[in-house]
Amino acid sequence: MPATRKVEQEVQSPTPALPKKRTTAAPKPKLLPPHAVILHNDAVNGFDFAVEVLRKVFHYGGAKAFWLTLRAHVGGRSVIWSGSKEVAELKADQVRGCGPDPRKASAGARPLRTSIEPMPG
User: 10 Å Cβ neighbour count for 25?
Assistant: First the structure.
């Protein structure tokens, strides 16, 4: 019977504990805040030209493009788009890439003025 007793001891002996892994929280990458593309009021380029540019670049409907342009005209500036910084830079470049209003070329028109700012929050 000594053989069975040895087996019982082996079965009853505690299993060796596995080493505990340290569970440290991996640092989460800090997300960048969304950025806004700002359209600034322009005394030279035509209102209708600004509306056309917003429709072309952002594919906005006529009413939305008109409203955003009106806000820039009355308030001096208007947020025309918001999202990731990289896309905001691209969109601002696309607006400027449309060039000046061809109907105002003799008046020294420049491309629509835009800027990029981080959104609050």
Answer: 5
